[in-house]
Amino acid sequence: MSIILIGGEKGGTGKTTLAVNIAAARARDGHDVLVVDTDPQGSASYWAAAREEAGIEPRVASIQKFGKTLANELKDLSKRYEEIIVDAGGRDSIELRSGLVVADKAYVPIQASQFDVWTLDQMDKLVSQAQSLNTGLKVYVVINRASPNPVVEETKEARELLEEFENLELLSLVIRDRIAYRKAVREGMAVSELPRRDSKACAEIDLLYREIYR
Ligand SMILES: Nc1ncnc2c1ncn2[C@@H]1O[C@H](COP(=O)(O)OP(=O)(O)OP(=O)(O)O)[C@@H](O)[C@H]1O
Ligand SMILES: [Mg+2]
C-alpha cells in the first residue's frame, strides 16, 4: 500500500507519461490502483477516459482533485485503494505541496537537455519543508526524454549538478525519447500495451516500476 507522487515544478517533463505507465503496470500486477490527477489540464484523466472508452484491461480508476484538502483526501483514499499514484501538476502548486506531505515516495522527471537548476533548487526546498511533516518522504529524480542515441552524453552534466541537492536522489535508470511513449498515452495505454511493442520503452518502464515498488 503506498502513495506515489510523480511531480515537479517544471512543465512538460513527462510527469503524466510516467504516472500513467506506472499506474497501468501496477494494475497489470493485480493491484487496485487509483490515479489522482491534480492538474487542471486533466491529461491523466484524459488518458484514463481514453482507456475506459477503448475497453483496455486492466481498468485503472482515476479522479481529479484540487486544492489544499488534497493531503487529507489522499489519506482517505489510501484506505480504499491499494495503490495511489498522484500526477502533481507542473508548477509550485498547492497540490504538489500537499501531495508531498502524504506521499511515501516522489519521483521528479527532468529532461537532461533542458536541465533547469532553478526549479530543482525550488523542489529541493519544497521537499525539505515537506519532510518536516513527512519524515519518511524520499524523493528521486528521473531523467526522461534522454536522447536514444547512446553517443550523446547529455545526462552527464545533469548527474554532476544533481549532487548539489540534499533532498533529491538521482536514479541511475534513464527514460529515453521514444515515439512509443507519445503514442501509448494518446490511446489510453501503457507502452507495453501498444500493438507494435517497443521493447526498449517497455524495458525502461519495467526498470522504473521495479525501482518504485521494489
Ligand atoms: N520519454 C518520452 N519520449 C517521448 N515523448 C515523451 C516522453 N515523455 C514525455 N513525452 C512527451 O512530452 C510531452 C510532455 O509530457 P507529459 O505530458 O507527460 O509531461 P508533464 O510533465 O505531465 O507536462 P505538464 O507539466 O504539462 O503536465 C508529451 O507530448 C509527451 O508525449
Ligand atoms: Mg501532466
Give structural notes.
The model has no long low-confidence stretch (mean pLDDT 94). The protein has a single domain (2-212), classed as 3-Layer(aba) Sandwich (Rossmann fold), CATH 3.40.50. It has eight helices and seven strands. The protein is globular, with a radius of gyration of 16 Å. Strands 3-2-4-1-5-6-7 form a seven-stranded parallel sheet, with helices on both faces. The longest helix is centred in the middle third of the chain and has 17 residues, at 117-133. Helix 2 (43-54) links the parallel strand 2 (33-37) and strand 3. It has 214 residues and is an alpha/beta fold. Bound molecules: adenosine-5'-triphosphate (ATP) and magnesium ion. Adenosine-5'-triphosphate binds next to helix 1, strand 6 and helix 7.
Report a brief summary of the structure:
This protein is 43% helix and 21% strand. The chain is α/β, with parallel strands linked by helices and 214 residues long. A 7-stranded parallel β-sheet has the order 3-2-4-1-5-6-7, sandwiched between helices.
How do the SSEs run, as a string of H and E? EHEHEHEHEHEHEHH
How many E strands? 7
Count the DSSP helices.
8
Calculate the mean pLDDT score and round it. Answer: 94
Number of domains: 1
CATH topology: Rossmann fold
What small molecules does the structure contain?
A: adenosine-5'-triphosphate, magnesium ion
Helix content: 40-55%
* CATH superfamily heading: P-loop containing nucleotide triphosphate hydrolases
Q: What CATH architecture do you see?
A: 3-Layer(aba) Sandwich
Q: Biggest β-sheet, characterized?
A: 7 strands, parallel
Which CATH class applies here?
Alpha Beta
| Shape assignment | globular
Secondary-structure class = alpha/beta
End-to-end separation in angstroms reads 12 Å
